[in-house]
């Protein structure tokens, strides 16, 4: 999950606590959340994740998307076995 740092509010503390156990958050320290900045955020996500995590595939999904994860996994398994 890619998020912006909020600097100490209760949501930020909860995220930090979950990230300590899951290690699956990418917290952007210097990113301005604005519509015109989304391409930069996506580019930063992709360039950072391929350096940070070893995976065969990365999926970028916006937070307003209802992702059928089982269907996606099935599609990937059929195409890439």
TrEMBL record:
Compartments reported by the entry: Golgi apparatus membrane
What is its membrane topology?
Single-pass type II membrane protein
Query: Which Gene Ontology cellular component terms are annotated?
Result: Golgi membrane
Q: Which domain of life is it from?
A: Eukaryota
Pathway given in the UniProt record = Protein modification; protein glycosylation
Cofactor(s) the record lists: Mn(2+)
Q: Name one GO molecular function term.
A: hexosyltransferase activity
Give the UniProt keywords, A-Z. Glycosyltransferase, Golgi apparatus, Manganese, Membrane, Signal-anchor, Transferase, Transmembrane, Transmembrane helix
Q: Which InterPro entries match?
A: Glyco_trans_31
What family is this?
Answer: Belongs to the glycosyltransferase 31 family.
Protein name in the entry: Hexosyltransferase
Q: Which organism is it from?
A: Quercus rubra (Northern red oak)
